[in-house]
Amino acid sequence: MATNKLETVTPYGDQRETKKGQVTSMFNKIAPYYDFLNRFLSLGIDVWWRKKAIGVLKPYANTHMLDVATGTADLAIEAAETLHPKTVIGMDISANMLKIGDKKIEKKELEKVITLETGDSENLRFDTDQFDTVTAAFGVRNFENLEKGLGEMFRVLKPGGVMMILEFSRPTTFPIKNIFNLYFKYLLPVIGKIRSKDAKAYQYLYESVQVFPDYDQFANILKQLGFQEVEYKPLSFGICTIYLAKK
Fold first, then answer.
1. Phi, psi angles (nearest 5°) of residue 19
2. The whole model's pTM is what?
3. Where are the domains of the chain?
4. Edge-to-edge strands of the sheet including 114-118?
5. φ, ψ of residue 116 in degrees (nearest 5)
6. What is the pLDDT of residue 7?
7. How does pLDDT run across 24-82, given as a tens digit for each residue?
8. How far, CA to CA in Å, does 136 sit from each of 71, 79, 89, 107?
9. Phi, psi of 178 (to 5 degrees)
10. Which CATH superfamily is domain 2-170+211-246 in?
11. Average pLDDT of the residues of the chain
12. Residue 60: phi, psi to the nearest 5?
């Protein structure tokens, strides 16, 4: 099954440490360079991707939101500024990423709306049926156990609530597919190494995308976990995809 294959892809290939531990170490290490490299390597398109992703949530009640694998809080900030919820909790396993996120939130004076905290996406501390909306951007493919993490997101979502996931996917059309593979596999790790001194992190990005169960396969996993009205929308010729589902 694709998710089992996903678990074998780790940032550093260290069999003595879990994927979760390696992902935590990786993001703590590259945190100071993360935002710059996101903008540089995507030519700034990642900002537009997040705007589109949050935009699909406008028709729904988003009073209390949870942003899983929030990183440096870009999606949480976009949600707060666009959807005007009462609360957004952003959670991540990397303390160093959250420190940067806290500074961005303070700069935008959103401290009364957004709260960041360290936590494990596969073992959420929150009550069942707690949130109107649960989101994640470029994070679920890093779960050690994909179904467990998605199941936790389902659990904490209120009945009738909506989940939105923005994640990398594999383009299927020529020549975008070929350009994507060349860029992500060869050029991106070189640029990442020059800036962050960690080529493995950006090599892992390519590898994790290659084994991630995208499009219909991911939608089917969500349905099997109990989500309803599952739909998805590819962006930028399929480089990433928005998934929307209800509980």
1. -60, -40
2. 0.93
3. 2-170+211-246
4. 114-118, 87-92, 64-68, 131-137, 157-168, 240-246, 228-235
5. -105, 145
6. 47
7. 999 999 999 889 888 887 888 999 999 999 999 999 999 999 999 999 999 999 999 99
8. 10, 11, 12, 22
9. -70, -45
10. Vaccinia Virus protein VP39 (3.40.50.150)
11. 92
12. -105, 165
Burial of 235 (0-12, 13-18, 19+ CB in 10 A): middle
State how beta strands 240-246 and 157-168 pair: antiparallel
ω into residue 175 within 30 of 0, thus cis? Answer: yes
Query: What is the per-residue pLDDT across 172-212, written as a single tens digit (0 to 9) for each?
Result: 988 988 988 888 888 877 877 777 777 788 888 889 999 99
Cα distances (Å, whole numbers) of residue 137 to 17, 165, 173, 194: 25, 6, 24, 25
Give buried/exposed letters for 120-154 (b at 16+ CB in 10 A, else e): bbbebebeeebbbbbbbbbbbbbbbbbeebbebbb
Is 88 in a helix, a strand, or coil? strand
Name residue 82's amino acid: T
Secondary structure of residue 137 in the 3-state scheme: strand
